[in-house]
């Protein structure tokens, strides 16, 4: 008989911030993510929440509910028969017991197996979604405000995830997602180490990120870390390590069936290694591969967040870098101009960094007035982006300008002093 009694399911739904309508939508999304054929209507959800006892969900619905809310079905107020109970015991202790003792009949082990009960909070997919939003937001913070504020937020998120992994209760699938996020955070810290000139700390974060990505068996995440390790290894004077990282990244990307954009990123890092080593023939070969991958990238529908920075402008920038290494700044200029024109406005830090590079190369090419004009445009849009690497590039230009006997160069140097005075490094 229907009544007005609110059982555990309603409380858990409300605690996750869902209305009945939004919960049904989230349920369908989670079922699709899990690859489970399960559906739910608002009418059925109302019956679950209002009837006493509520009708028992189907096994496939059970898997989705447990994954969403992070608690066994019995704790949601349902009368669950013994063969449908989710047992909070290590999987290795199953012995001769059938797998369905631990999970719903769909056999989705990762979605239904709970870690041993802990006194901390239950973690479900709603909590994961909030963490994922904040984690993805680090890219925007880094690109628009700089790595310094991004590092502060990354440490905050990392502390929360580490605390949850150690004290909360969650399904093994959610635990895997949390560990994946932790691996991504280590990768972010590696990049911030590079941007901040903390090369040793960046390399240590890379090692942590690679280990964490291996534990969750995520090859593309490993590739994202390796592309940062290449840059750090070059800065550390470990060219052999950078070259090995490129080779390993190629192998992982191939075995994982990675898309063209991921291969583009690896080819660009390959070009970085060759350019740094003075192997200009190798750099040209890597850039030729990059152009090929770039030409095919438009056919992709999904690109990992960490690879979305790559585009034609990155190929132009890498080509210019090759010419700079070959002591041919005049040949580098048109490629740098194309890179500055091509980079999107949402990549503010990189856009400013490109213009600083262009200003420096123009100065090397003897185009002093143009160089100072570019630097003035940089200072107009600088906005105090908290990036030690960017600040270092600006000050490097300032030092170079001091060696030029020119009114424009002196005025530009003075403006740099006024603009970046007190900038954090």
What does this structure look like?
With 425 residues, the protein is mostly helical. Among the domains are: 71 residues, no CATH class; 95 residues, no CATH class; 97 residues, Serine Threonine Protein Phosphatase 5, Tetratricopeptide repeat (Alpha Horseshoe), CATH 1.25.40. The chain is built from 19 helices and no strands. Helix 15 packs antiparallel against helix 16 and helix 18 packs antiparallel against helix 19. The radius of gyration is 27 Å and the shape is elongated. The chain starts with 7 loop residues before the first helix and ends in a 5-residue tail after the last helix. The N terminus is likely disordered. This is Transcriptional regulator.
Concise account of the structure shown:
The chain is mainly α and 425 residues long.
Architecture blueprint of SSEs:
Layout: H1 8-15, H2 20-34, H3 42-50, H4 59-69, H5 109-112, H6 125-144, H7 147-167, H8 172-195, H9 199-215, H10 219-235, H11 239-255, H12 260-276, H13 280-297, H14 312-325, H15 329-342, H16 348-364, H17 368-381, H18 388-402, H19 407-420
Short descriptors:
Serine Threonine Protein Phosphatase 5, Tetratricopeptide repeat; Transcriptional regulator; disordered N terminus; 425 residues; single chain
